[in-house]
């Protein structure tokens, strides 16, 4: 309880800091220094099937600041995107993820696991992104079909042709793609036909109300049918209760992620 109280104070402190331009500059320089000092940490949260067997993990970044404690991504990723630091952070996450997958590949107990990495739109726009990915995979010897990227629907709003080409290139190198927070974007469903993605990740806002809202259940049923029609794996995120899990399984969802199964923890503890 003491820890979560501290967290709340911290969040409030940082929100008010962001209001002030000078203090924002301060946070940016702390983050820059934090990156140099190796203060970023990769956490991971399991994704399970309907029998609760772990299929893979999602990497979730944290910043462990000596001054501010453990800072969640929502409090520094937007700033990192605005300043361009996201490129460097993204490279670090990709490197860590590939290294981890190579370690898992050597152990029969973990070699089946996939690892999902969240990408910002800005990373995808880097000219040599596909080459960077191939380079890290080759460097560590990552097997095909294990690295997965999570993109939000927003990446489909600009230069769809380029995104399609990039995802096809990645697919040819054995990298899978998932559409994160699915159902919250504004993009047309017709792009799904053209897009080389393999997974839809139903947003937590639908999971939150699936048990007692018939309209939510209808939306999830539609996403599941869409997934079947396009041959996509359908995952639900933010599953917190047993009734949510049961209902989602009844509706045909393939895989599940949430506090019900595990909170994110340091990836070394997987
Ligand atoms: P996301 O990819 O949609 O990740 C899901 C978020 O929901 C995570 O928050 C996770 O800890 C949280 N979560 C998981 N299960 C539950 C649950 O049962 N209940 C509740 N209430 N929450 C749950 P987190 O770790 O704070 O990450 C927030 C967002 O930050 C992520 O949303 C993702 O968009 C972004 N992010 C995280 N790591 C990275 C990264 O390495 N690079 C980039 N570009 N973005 C990242
Ligand atoms: Mg995600
Ligand atoms: Mg998500
Ligand atoms: Mg989300």
TrEMBL record:
Residues 24-270 form the EAL domain. It comes from the Bacteria. Signal peptide: none annotated. This is EAL domain-containing protein.
């Amino acid at each position: 309880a003491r820890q979560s109280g501290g967290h709340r104070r911290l969040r409030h402190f940082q929100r008010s800091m962001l209001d002030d331009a000078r203090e924002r500059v301060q946070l940016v320089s702390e983050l820059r220094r934090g990156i140099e000092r190796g203060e970023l940490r990769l956490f991971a949260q399991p994704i399970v099937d309907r029998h609760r067997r772990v299929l893979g993990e999602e990497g979730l970044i944290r910043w462990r600041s000596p001054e501010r404690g453990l800072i969640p991504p929502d409090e520094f990723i937007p700033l990192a995107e605005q300043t361009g630091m996201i490129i460097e952070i993204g490279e670090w996450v990709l490197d860590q993820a590939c290294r981890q997958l190579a370690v898992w590949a050597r152990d029969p107990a973990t070699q089946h696991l996939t690892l999902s990495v969240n990408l910002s739109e800005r990373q995808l726009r880097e000219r040599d992104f596909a080459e960077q990915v191939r380079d890290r995979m080759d460097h560590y010897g990552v097997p095909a079909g294990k690295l997965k990227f999570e993109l939000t629907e927003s990446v489909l709003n600009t230069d769809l042709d380029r995104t399609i080409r990039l995802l096809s290139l990645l697919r040819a190198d054995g990298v899978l793609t998932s559409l994160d927070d699915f159902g919250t974007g504004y993009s047309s469903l017709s792009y799904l036909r053209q897009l080389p993605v393999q997974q839809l990740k139903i947003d937590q806002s639908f999971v939150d109300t699936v048990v007692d809202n018939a309209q939510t259940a209808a939306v999830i049923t539609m996403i599941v049918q869409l997934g079947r029609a396009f041959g996509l794996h359908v995952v639900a995120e933010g599953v917190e209760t047993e009734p949510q899990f049961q209902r989602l399984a009844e509706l045909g969802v393939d895989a599940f992620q949430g506090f019900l199964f595990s909170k994110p923890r340091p990836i070394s503890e997987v």
